[in-house]
## 1
Amino acid sequence: MKKQKSFIFKCSGCGHEEARWLGRCPECGEWNTLIETAVNAAAGRAGGQRFGAAGRGLPQSLPLSAVNPQEGGRLSSGIGELDRVLGGGIMKRSAVLVGGEPGIGKSTLLLQAAAAAETRGRILYISGEESAGQVRLRADRLGLAGSSVEKIEIVCTGSLEEIETILNAVKPVLIMVDSAQTLFSADAGSVPGTVNQMKFCAFELIAWVKEHDAALFLVAHVTKEGLIAGPKALEHMVDTVLYFEQNDKAAGLSGTQECRFLRAAKNRFGSVDEIGIFTMGERGLQTVEDTSLLFLVRREGELPAGVATAAVLEGTRTILVEIQALTIPAKGAVSRVFSDKIDSARVSRVAAALEKHLGLRLSDQDLYVNVAGGIRITEVGVELALAGALYSARTGLALPAGMVIAGELSLTGEIRPVRRLAARIKTARSLGFTGFLGPAPEAVESAAVAASAPELKIAGDIKAAVKLIYGKGR
């Protein structure tokens, strides 16, 4: 009988398999990427470890009503802003992918979360980029000492086989991997960071945490466009995808502290509207729970033209931000919009509504829009304040200093209701603002708004809003 081959040739770039060696992979077209791989090791590992070797047999179905709801419990990371973005804490048997620019604080966040996590179980920190001594130096610099680090086990390797051996020996409840691009397995090729390596290693680690009632954090590198590097399938495999963003000094911060924003692009166990705000200092990342004056520029006297204060929602939190607008004659035949903190398409729609319904010519102007503090705003409630800033910049008429604006502006010039209007007004009043311009409250909020804001100015459309701001003659 012909003996069955005990090896195949697998492409290290795309994972394509061939029975014999070829100089060029027929799937991805790369040269010299087919590597000899043992068939028995892969088959034994995939089949034996998952089913027969563990002695668990084949998986069995059971009624959903018989599932213990405690299996989906959460544990606190000890960092309030991280828990907020995750939806209330770290969900057991879940995988979280954390991406961001180099040096923004991804490794610092994971190390601080490992030290502050409210659990009695062991925590495994896997570093494929730094040595154990370098991680310890960072922990000392962050002031992590004593009992907070005694529960942390550290291993510096990228080998999946070594990691799985340590996982089965330590049985951690929380696993931090820094980073996904440094993981590799002999069954998926010999080059770390390839598409096949990342998918294979991530799948194995995610399967382990779901079987052992643990949670996994994976740090991921990003491309120059700011997206997570590697296969898009990696984001589909995990339960939560977090992005770290950085800005210049926030308007209300002093010294050299910089602001960091943690956002969820995907969250199977919570909302993606929440935002975590941190400052980076000598002691690492510090949470910012009170954002009342963080994004407002402190100035005395009247506001300059082109500035409006908006009340926007970030998840369950209401924050006040300063919208800044500038209009100058277009340098070319076509006007342009320069806005990175508010979607430029939204700026163009608001400008078109102003030109149509107020006769304010903006089509021959270059529009510059900025948000003080560098926070990115996606909520529709910013549109009326944006319209006010653009109108002020074009006409040179400053808005009243004590006024806060919120509302959605439609293409027909109408101002539509926004969510949680009473909470926005309450936040504005607590900061000393005396006026609030917005739409009529919804029926469910009418009583709360009437009790908290007798000074609310209600506008039904953009023309009425301009009259309420500047008087009847405008």
Note: Residues 203 and 425 are 47 Å apart (CA to CA).
## 2
Amino acid sequence: MTTLSTAIQTFFSDRLLRERSASPHTIGSYRDTLRLLLTFASQRTGKQPTKLTLEDLDATLIGAFLDHLERERGCSTRTRNLRLTAIRSLFRYCALRFPEHAALIERVLAIPPKRHDRTLVSYLTEPELDALLDTPDRSTWTGRRDHALLLLAAQTGLRASELIALTPADIHTGTGAHLTTLGKGRKRRITPLTKDTLAVLNAWTRERAGSDTTPLFPTRTGRPLTRDALARRLTKYSGQGAERCPSMREKNVTPHVLRHTAAMRLLHAGIDTSVIALWLGHEQVETTHKYLHADLAIKEQALAKTKPLDSKPGRYRPPDALLDFLEGLG
């Protein structure tokens, strides 16, 4: 095995797993990226993947690989950029181990992400959310579970991976009721619960079988729901909800749409974006600004405060006698 092979193995075992405690989702994404890259490089160089060296993975080959993803594999620009993020993470790790290849590594790290059109976030309006929450059949065990799950997702904005990993031990009742979750980047955060959500969760926790360390939303066999199973159930309920609220037919309702919905509800309530960033577990406040771009109501409020374009200019006249006095002092 070459030094590159060893570096890739320690990159996963030491950097991602031990040092950064990366989530299984991140591990899987980085694994798939490097598997595709090594296969592509092997075909280009004629070497077996275990025989590849760092010199084989230069900026020219990486650029060709990224083009290959878009042109031949049909990947989106967003996917291309995600693959580049994984590659750059590996090369930053290699920069510490192979200083003699600093120039080669620097050229790879200099490859920029590709610009692409950003779509507005999709979220559910209050009537759409009500229709979705009313869809599960609460006369059944599965329906009560799904109703509690959807209500919690829409109120807290938890990610799909965070929802399915919850246990009853993560629920803290009493004054200041909240959830504790281990989210993206292995960061633990606290999310408040409303009285209505807490009441539903308490009722569901009493009904479900299992200990405080087993899944909060299990399958019939007691196993955790998978991300795919969660997505399928949400697709089913959104389709049924569209019969009551036709506007839902225009939306692809996913677990992340419920996360966006929670954020938009907070924004409409007048919560500052910095607080929403902490609520959602965003590492940078700028990530939360996308909700401002998507909210037409806020833009309309801002427009209402602006001066009409066809208004005639005039001298400022204070609306109050005291202000008039102060204005006369100038």
Note: The chain has 15 helices and three strands.
